[in-house]
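User: Sequence for Elongation factor P below. C-alpha cells please.
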Amino acid sequence: MAGISAFKCPCFRPPSSSLSYTSNPFLLPHLRVSSPRHRPTFPKIYAITSNDIKVGLNIEVDGNPWKVIGAAFVRTTLRNYVTGNQVEKTFRAGSKIEEADIFKETKQYTYKDGSQYVFMDLSTYEEFRLNEADVGDKSKWLKEGMDCSLLFWKGKVIDFELPITVKLKVVEADPGVKGDTAQGGSKPVTVDTGAVVSVPLFIGVGEEILIDTRTGQYMSRA
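Assistant: C-alpha cells for Elongation factor P:
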C-alpha cells in the first residue's frame, strides 16, 4: 500500500560478529561456536638436585624462572689409592672423566708375615700381600680367616675392603656396676684383634659382639 514503508524488526539484527544469518530475515540466526584451543601439556619436573644442573637447563629460583647459561663446577676430595694422598680438585660440570678400571675379588686374610698382611685365593692358593701402610687402621678389625675384597688396578692390588660387619670376641672388660645398666651406660672393652670398643655395661669377657667396621661402633651381641 502507498505511504507505508517496509518495516524491519530490530530483533533480527546481529548483536555481535559471533552470530551469522541467512538471507531470510525470519529465520533464527546460526551461532558459530569455535572449539577451545588446547595447549600441549608436558610432564612437569618437580625437583632436581644440584648434580643435575648444567648449561641450558631451565630452573626456578626464588619464585622466578631462570636459564643456566654459565659453566658450573663440581668440587671433590680425592684420595690416591697408591700413595694415600688426598687432594681437592674441581671439575667442570659435564666434562668427560675417564673411569678407573678397578675391580674387586674376594680373598681370605690368612696371616701376617712381618710387616705384610697375606691374603689368599682359596681356589688357586695364590698369595697377595699388603704392607702395614696399605692396611692402616683397618688392621684393628682384621682377623685370620676373614674374607675381604681386594681391589685390583692394572694387575696390582691397591686397596682392600673389610666386611661391613665383623664378629669379635671380648678378651678384656671391666665388670659393670649395678644400677648403671638402667642409665644406659657404656664401658671400653678390648676385643681379640686388640681394638678397644665402647660397649654396654652388661657385656662381659668371653662374649662375642658385632662391630660396624665403617664406624667402629658396637652393634649387638653376636
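The chain has one helix and 16 strands.
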